[in-house]
């Protein structure tokens, strides 16, 4: 794989495993509203989508006000449970450090709130280690809209040809496609190699170490 000048990463299931916290928060909200029979795997399959989309998929609810209310309840749950139940993948710190040593710029594009990402990474990485973090509160349209990636490209002053976007899900593959940047998939999450391979990619990796 060629060396890029900019590496933009998804967060959940790409750099970190937050599935324990995510499942816990979803389950607390779902059970509070008597939504039963939903498996952990079904919840994990929605990781990467917006909270409203995820709740709609899991419950069948389409009413915008109800979905917004569930989102707000989830955020309150996440304030308590998310960071303590999120762990970087074993290779994450080493890979990011090596990329920085090679002179690359590093960023994160996520539907997760920026402050939540920073809360976790502040305990793991030096301050100002990342060149940019674009969270869900920083864009008008969530992934797979290219807005977040294009914002990072503009802020970092680079060309699309110099950028690799790395993610674990179909949403990430579609985001890279919409932004017209190269995509590399990583098989940390619930999405299969076959599902990711259906999209244009430079690599489908078992772990970030292959970067």
Automatic annotation (TrEMBL):
UniProt-listed GO biological process terms? DNA repair
Q: Which reaction does it catalyse?
A: 2-phosphoglycolate + H2O = glycolate + phosphate
Q: What is its EC number?
A: 3.1.3.18
Domain of life assignment: Bacteria
> Keywords assigned by UniProt?
Hydrolase
One GO cellular component term of this record is: cytosol
Pathway assignment reads: Organic acid metabolism; glycolate biosynthesis; glycolate from 2-phosphoglycolate: step 1/1
Top enzyme class, one word, equals hydrolase
Q: Which GO terms describe its molecular function?
A: phosphoglycolate phosphatase activity
* Record carries keyword RNA-binding: no
Similarity remark: Belongs to the HAD-like hydrolase superfamily. CbbY/CbbZ/Gph/YieH family.
PANTHER family, alphabetized: PHOSPHOGLYCOLATE PHOSPHATASE (PTHR43434)
What protein name is recorded for this chain?
phosphoglycolate phosphatase
């Amino acid at each position: 794989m060629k060396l890029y000048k900019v590496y933009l990463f998804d967060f959940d299931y790409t750099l970190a495993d937050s599935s324990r916290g995510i499942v816990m928060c979803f389950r607390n909200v779902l059970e509070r509203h008597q939504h039963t029979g939903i498996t952990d795997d079904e919840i994990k399959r929605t990781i990467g989508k917006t909270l409203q989309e995820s709740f709609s998929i899991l419950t069948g609810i389409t009413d915008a006000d109800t979905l917004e209310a569930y989102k707000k309840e989830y955020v309150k749950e996440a304030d308590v449970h998310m960071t303590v139940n999120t762990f970087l993948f074993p290779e994450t710190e080493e890979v990011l450090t090596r990329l920085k040593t090679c002179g690359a710029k590093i960023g994160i594009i996520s539907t997760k709130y920026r402050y939540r990402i920073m809360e976790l990474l502040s305990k793991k990485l030096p301050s100002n280690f990342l060149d940019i973090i674009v969270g869900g509160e920083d864009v008008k349209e969530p992934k797979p809209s290219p807005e977040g990636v294009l914002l990072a490209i503009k802020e970092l002053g680079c060309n699309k040809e110099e950028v690799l976007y790395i993610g674990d899900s179909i949403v990430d593959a579609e985001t890279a496609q919409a932004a017209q940047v190269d995509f590399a998939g990583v098989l940390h999450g619930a999405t299969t190699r076959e599902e990711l391979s259906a999209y244009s990619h430079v690599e489908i990796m078992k772990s970030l170490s292959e970067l």
